[in-house]
TrEMBL record:
SUPFAM superfamilies with a match to the protein in the record: MFS general substrate transporter
Keywords, ordered alphabetically: Cell membrane, Membrane, Transmembrane, Transmembrane helix, Transport
Compartment(s) of residence: Cell membrane
Claim: rRNA processing is one of the keywords in the record: no
InterPro entries referenced in this protein's UniProt entry, alphabetically: MFS, MFS_dom, MFS_trans_sf
Organism this protein belongs to: Metabacillus arenae
Protein name: MFS transporter
Length: 415
């Protein structure tokens, strides 16, 4: 009864309702865009691998180039206004691409991915900053759990929705619907509480100076530095196994490649349940313990998948692997918010995100080579070892979770 009362009170938070509604529209727009562009490019190029890979480049490259820049501006600008403008500009860019697509070249679809991916690097850290401002500390983990569960749900239904829209209505309506979803997301953000008045700095600083301050802030905060190392290792582990799932299905289990959809579906369903479990335990288990538990279970399950050639054992391991993934993501995001000063949330997020994504993309690039050099089984054992290293990195935080946040009190000198 108490849990339902807490959840009811939590959902009465005006910020939570608005950000979840915005997230719903945004996820619809993103998945319709992603799959319509993917299927359209496949049609136009007869499945040319280079053209298909350019979609991923357009989607992920902005994370490395603009993440820290977007985080820095998120700390300079008003977060609500930033998020609304990013959604509006994304919608404008999508409708511009639609016009170009109709009257000029089909290659314009790549810009639909690129521009909105760039703008999301300004919007996402602003959203994290608003979580820090409007959600009480004791409810942060609950808020992150609910938000992550929304993403997990769309990992299952997003591809279905995107594929259905494209197959039924074609690329023009798919792109138009994407723009409409971004507009609806911006509309939902209007219901967010008003931005606070920005504090006037005693000494004016440049963007480069503030960017440098962000790196110093993370470096001087032992908690965040350790978490950054954990983030990088987790990205390396996930990046190593993500492209190899198809080989687990075909080589290890001896199944047809079509079985991959069920292999991935098990993971997706588990992630939804995992998000719900993380939400249920958010007030009972500290984020650092949740992170360690999640990485320990994933290390064991990944190792099992690497050795198993029995379908039901592999599917059980895949299920528990997916079940714990939200715990890892939610706990890291919660700890970033809990251990970052409000003035630095954008920059901390902008530094941490490329660590994870960078590790993941680098390992995805070398996963095939590693498989050929080490074997599929040993590649999965290597990923399991990386998760164990991640646990060892956070042992100091488990022993002494409340590090003095000395860096939050220290004035960082500007150049």
């Amino acid at each position: 009864m108490e849990k339902s009362t807490n959840m009811s009170a939590f959902l009465k938070n005006r910020f939570i309702r608005a950000i979840l509604l915005s997230g719903l529209f945004l996820q619809l727009g993103i998945w319709i865009r992603n799959f319509s562009v993917l299927l359209f490019v496949m049609e136009q190029t007869n499945g040319d691998p280079f053209a298909v890979s350019m979609i991923s480049v357009a989607e992920f490259a902005p994370i490395f180039i603009f993440s820290i820049i977007g985080g820095t501006f998120a700390d300079r600008w008003k977060p609500k206004k930033t998020m609304i403008w990013c959604d509006l500009l994304s919608a404008v860019s999508v409708f511009t691409v639609l016009a170009t697509l109709m009257f000029a070249s089909w290659h314009a679809v790549f810009f639909a991915m690129l521009i909105s991916a760039i703008l999301s690097q300004f919007s996402q850290p602003s959203g994290m900053k608003l979580f820090k401002i409007h959600v009480p500390k004791e409810q942060l983990q609950m808020g992150m759990s609910l938000y992550q569960t929304l993403f997990a749900v769309f990992m299952i239904i997003g591809p279905i929705i995107g594929t259905f829209i494209f197959q039924q209505y074609g690329i023009y309506l798919s792109i138009a619907l994407t723009g409409i979803m971004f507009l609806l997301s911006a509309g939902a953000l209007l219901f967010l509480p008003a931005d606070r008045a920005m504090e006037e700095e005693k000494e004016k600083t440049t963007v480069l100076q503030e960017l440098g301050q962000g790196f110093k802030y993370v470096k001087n905060n032992r908690f965040l530095s350790i978490l950054g190392g954990n983030f990088l290792v987790a990205g390396l582990a996930i990046g190593l196994i993500q492209p190899l799932g198809i080989f687990i299905v075909t080589e290890q289990l001896g199944m047809d490649k079509e079985f991959l959809q069920w292999f991935l579906a098990v993971n997706g369903v588990a992630m939804i349940l995992g998000g719900g479990m993380a939400l249920a335990f958010s007030k009972k288990i500290a984020p650092i313990r949740l992170l360690a538990i999640g990485m320990a279970v994933d290390a064991i399950m990944i190792s099992v998948m690497g050795f198993s050639n029995v379908v039901w054992i592999t599917l059980i391991a895949q299920f528990f692997n997916g079940l714990m993934m939200p715990a890892i993501q939610i706990s890291i995001n919660t700890m970033i918010l809990e251990n970052s000063d409000e003035k630095f949330v954008g920059r901390v997020n902008g530094i941490m995100t490329p660590l994870f994504m960078g590790g993941m993309v680098v390992m995805m690039s070398f996963a095939g080579v590693i498989k050929e050099f080490m074997s599929l089984t040993m590649a999965y054992q290597a990923a399991a070892v990386l998760f164990v290293i991640g646990i060892l990195l956070v042992v100091p935080l488990l022993i002494k979770p409340n590090f003095p946040k000395q860096d939050q009190k220290v004035k960082i000198e500007t150049q």
